[in-house]
Amino acid sequence: MDAIVVSKADRTPRLVDRPRPDPTPGSVLVRTLRVGVDGTDHEVIAGTHGGFPEDADELVLGHEAIGVVADPTDTRFSAGQLVAPTVRRPRGDPTPQFDRGQPDMAAPGTYVERGIDGADGFMADYFTSPADALVALPDSLAAHGFLTEPVSVAEKAIELALASRSAFDWRPDSALVLGNGSLGLLTLAILAARDDTETLYCLGRRSRPDPTIDIIERLGATYIDSRTTPVADIPAAHQPVDMVYEATGHAKHAFDAIDALAPAGVAALLGVPAAGWTFEVPGSDLHRSLVLENKAVVGSVNSNARHFRAAADTLAALPDWLCDAIVTGVHDTAAFADAFRDGETSIKTAVQFDTR
Amino acid sequence: MDAIVVSKADRTPRLVDRPRPDPTPGSVLVRTLRVGVDGTDHEVIAGTHGGFPEDADELVLGHEAIGVVADPTDTRFSAGQLVAPTVRRPRGDPTPQFDRGQPDMAAPGTYVERGIDGADGFMADYFTSPADALVALPDSLAAHGFLTEPVSVAEKAIELALASRSAFDWRPDSALVLGNGSLGLLTLAILAARDDTETLYCLGRRSRPDPTIDIIERLGATYIDSRTTPVADIPAAHQPVDMVYEATGHAKHAFDAIDALAPAGVAALLGVPAAGWTFEVPGSDLHRSLVLENKAVVGSVNSNARHFRAAADTLAALPDWLCDAIVTGVHDTAAFADAFRDGETSIKTAVQFDTR
Predict the structure, then answer these.
(1) Domain A152-299 CATH class label
(2) pLDDT at A87 over 90
């Protein structure tokens, strides 16, 4: 079967022939429809994030997949069902976090991540997955269901942010998303669909005309250009915000976000920064602001099957124009390299292995 | 009546004569028993925190009070009842946070704090308070009930910390308190009384023999000397911890605490740092650790009537030896200055205005 890999010797994605995997009892053989590409994939390809499976020189790419059950073996799934796989699997014996259904909360070193770190991903004609790492999707999501994974990541961050404020009567009204990549735009879209955030902002560093700015404004949000209005200036230029969602991985944002918050606000950090950057911060002022204004910061990574189910509901309820606008390219395996090209107008791309 | 004030002209506490206040309907006249002294009082006296009431050159000190209802007017209280007052009152018209019973979540500028900022405190033979800012205490707390305020501050921080982890199945086992002052020790005592924290640490910078180290060890916790084991070294020297409670206001602790956390852990910040200290941090590593390990940081200040009620229950259940060990001096008004002296062996002091 076709599979798209990166190898230790060749740091560009290549199409290779791999044997079709055989499902064992308890696992499911899935015929892949589409697999999305995101910033993490580019880091995996560049070798700055993740790693190869043990004893392997190649890694099958892809962690944002949708497919159709080809062989359910003895599981609760039926052939033909639409499914999306979660990303983490135990590295060795499952830890209690896996037993509790929350591998997303597991400690580094206790898991592999399919298509990212230590385990082959889903960019192949077929893949297998344990049934408990698969979530059924409604038929309406056949086209855009590969967005379930990134939407689930945003769902989890929003859940953690709201939970952090659940000890008191909190009535957020405004939110700011840092980043207008696909994860930032999906987070913004989820917030726009919620009742509790009337006023939305999204920060980027692009000039008009730009398709992401069009999406931001069509969602009813205000675009903020970080080149003219840095994060720390947002309260003065616009307003202090109840929630910040950091979706760029730019490390200074994690600290500036504290200043952008209204009293009792929360900053959720989704973007993963590179290691090793040391810089000055107004340390005691940030600490003071956290304490005296009851602010919170929550980090959030990955997502579990529960978040995938919530994401499927969310995705099914998002307006059609939105996914059409965010998904700027779906490329079949013959043209797979186009899915890994970052263009001025590209937002989210996917490789298509098959159609329903 | 007797009152203990600090004045713009004289930055040492003085005993003065003040007229006894008259309660208006809806408010209660309280005969003061004891008022505690904490670090905030010392900052108020030094002029580094808080401020005088509008148009006044003197501030009555004290925000940790217990007293007896002298005149309940038309309120739900009865004469003779033991009560503790909360600290914040509206500055001008009450904001929605006051209407919701959570002045502790109010924005700076919308409140005054009795004995701290813009309103006279409780260090007087009598004070008045709106009934909704008073909490009834059981008779058993007549001696140590002035600790209700600091215990309520710790209760709130613990509540916010736990809430921040409530979106998933979290099973904390270890906690680290930074600071062995009275707030740190009370926080440690509350954690020791809970079922969910088997392993406790408390960090200070004192040498044995020391009464705070004795308390820490009698509570079953391990004392960590920050001069030999800085916060960031605690995971290697002891273990990564599920919770950190920062009760010193030392700004670097707020950042080092992130490194001390186990995956999915939370750092609660209670101590209030001075403003204006800028320093270098391993910014992207901290950001990365927050995200990849799902860590949280929550700031917490003040407390509301609900936290006072929880604190009264907590305080009533603490072992007798503990409050006896923490309260190192109760001084009557004739010797009030002793309550403001910080000695090697003093932990928590109070001024006694009257006895039950």
Answers:
(1) alpha beta
(2) yes
